[in-house]
Amino acid sequence: MKETIKKIIGINSNDKARERWLAQTLAAIPPKLRILDSGAGELRNKRLCGHLNYVSQDFCQYDGKGDGQGLQTGAWDTSKIDLVCDVVNIPEQDASFDVVLCSEVFEHLPDALKALDEFARLLKPSGKLILTAPFASLVHFAPYHYATGFSRYWYECHLPPRGFTIQELTPNGDWFSLTKQEMLRLPSMARRYGDWCWPLAYVVAGIGLIYFLLRGKSRPAADVACFGWHCVAVKR
Predict the structure, then answer these.
(1) What are 12-59's pLDDT values in tens digits?
(2) What's the CA gap between 190 and 175, in Å, rounded?
(3) Three-state SS across 174-219?
(4) Beta bridge mates, 132
(5) Distance (Å, rounded) from C-alpha 91 to C-alpha 84?
(6) Is residue 147 a contact partner of residue 165, using CB atoms and an 8 Å limit?
């Protein structure tokens, strides 16, 4: 019942939609190809790559507590990572991977463009680059949170000069789903920061939820904002 309610009101719609897209995209890759999961963290995507020759990479410096600011996980286990290194200097030969996956990592990189350069080096010709990054994210994993706002235009600007042809570029959610997520987050944020009027946050969130339920699936507004973009690019 609890999961059904969450599904109806759209809690975790960001994560769920991204997981579905990754599952479909990775399942379509032919078996036995060599894939690099860059910024793999706790190997969340490894289960989707059982048919592939999976290699994980992460810098392994985040411990779940960070600097105590923003949103932290509390615990974070990267003990099973294969390649412990900087994403811009991965100890593998040129053209050594058929696929590179980098999901929800770019906001944690001081220079995401250098990572794109490294992925271009590592991919074989005709290899696939699978990317997801937030267009609008709250500060998390601090102090390792450097950017947000990865729009479709960011991909269209930076991938082609690095030898990539964009095969797919689709939004995850839109302005309305993003606004709904933050409205549902209002009560917990109000309590977290000690607002004296925090009970009213539940009333506001409830009224907002009624609006979104009544609105249904009307015209989307991904041209204004979304959770992030899902991208597949092929190395020319």
Answers:
(1) 689 999 999 999 999 999 999 999 999 999 999 999 999 999 999 999
(2) 22
(3) CHHHHHHHHHHHHHHHHHHCCCCCHHHHHHHHHHHHHHHHHHCCCC
(4) 103, 230
(5) 9
(6) no
d(CA 159, CA 179): 29
- Rounded distance, CA 180 to CA 17, Å? 15
Crossing angle of helices 198-215/2-9, nearest 10°?
70
Total residues found in the chain within this entry? 236
Q: Region 182-202: what's the mean pLDDT?
A: 94
DSSP type of residue 113: H
pLDDT of residue 30: 97
Q: How far apart are alpha carbons 217 and 212 in whole angstroms? A: 9
* Cis, bond preceding 143 (omega within 30 deg of 0): yes
